[in-house]
Design a protein that fits this description.
single chain; mainly beta; 2 domains; 3 helices
Length: 234
């Protein structure tokens, strides 16, 4: 039997502990939800407030001197301005007519990215460059923070059965959500597929929910909350 019983609106502001973030949290229900065969999500609302420069892609070296870009959200012009604010006038960044970032120096320069994610952000493909006075990125900068999200959901009872829990188990991925918005937008996604999560004990006492990016990292929405609508079946 596949009967839709009701829908639940889950909001990360109702999470069990505010020491957890708004994209990796547990919601406990006031009383167990009984007679549940399976469920699926029918809508998710995500405020697109992620930074595109974080501590994982903001460091680089020029002639063995380390620099870091302040974390935040950048456009190409504002990123170029920030790069030029970080070091002496002996080096400068700009971009070419086709939008690729370029670094120019007065003398031959060694240019190194550590970690490689910084190179990817700026459009470079290698971790180090040396011997030239100018370097042009091979690709356009990648300023979108993620191409898609994965929504991970698991019943609390299942989590308690495992002494070691990995929230990136594929069985816990309720859906893949394409990031079709821009920074500052509110992404509203309603899936057209029918991906169901089956319940072992016919009841749910609560759910653990996490929202991850395309690198399988917990998304940081700068304390903004997400909402999820779940459809319960019996």
């Amino acid at each position: 039997m596949n009967t839709i019983v009701d829908t639940l609106l889950l909001d990360s502001k109702d999470r069990e502990s505010f020491s957890s973030g708004t994209t990796d949290f547990t919601i406990k229900f006031p009383r167990p939800i009984q007679d549940v065969s399976h469920y699926r999500f029918t809508k998710v609302i995500i405020p697109l407030s992620m930074d595109n420069v974080t501590s994982s892609n903001n460091t680089y070296e020029i002639n063995d001197v380390s620099f870091s870009v302040s974390t935040g959200y950048y456009t190409i012009p504002s990123l170029i301005d920030q790069l030029n604010d970080d070091h002496s006038a002996a080096y400068s960044f700009d971009w070419t007519a086709n939008g690729r970032i370029r670094m120019v120096s007065d003398t031959a320069t060694n240019f190194k990215f550590e970690p490689l994610e910084t190179a990817k952000l700026l459009g470079f493909t290698s971790s180090s460059y040396s011997g030239d006075i100018a370097y042009v990125a091979e690709h356009l900068p990648i300023l979108q923070s993620t191409n898609y999200f994965t929504l991970h959901v698991e019943e609390i009872a299942n989590r308690q059965k495992h002494s070691i829990y990995h929230s990136d188990y594929r069985s816990n991925i309720l859906d893949l959500i394409p990031n079709t918005g821009s920074h500052g937008d509110v992404l509203v996604y309603e899936p057209t597929n029918q991906i169901y999560k089956y319940v072992q004990d016919s009841k749910i006492t609560g759910l653990h929910i996490s929202l991850r990016n395309s690198a399988n990292e917990i998304v940081d929405l700068q304390s903004n909350n997400i909402q999820i609508v779940i459809e319960r079946h019996k």
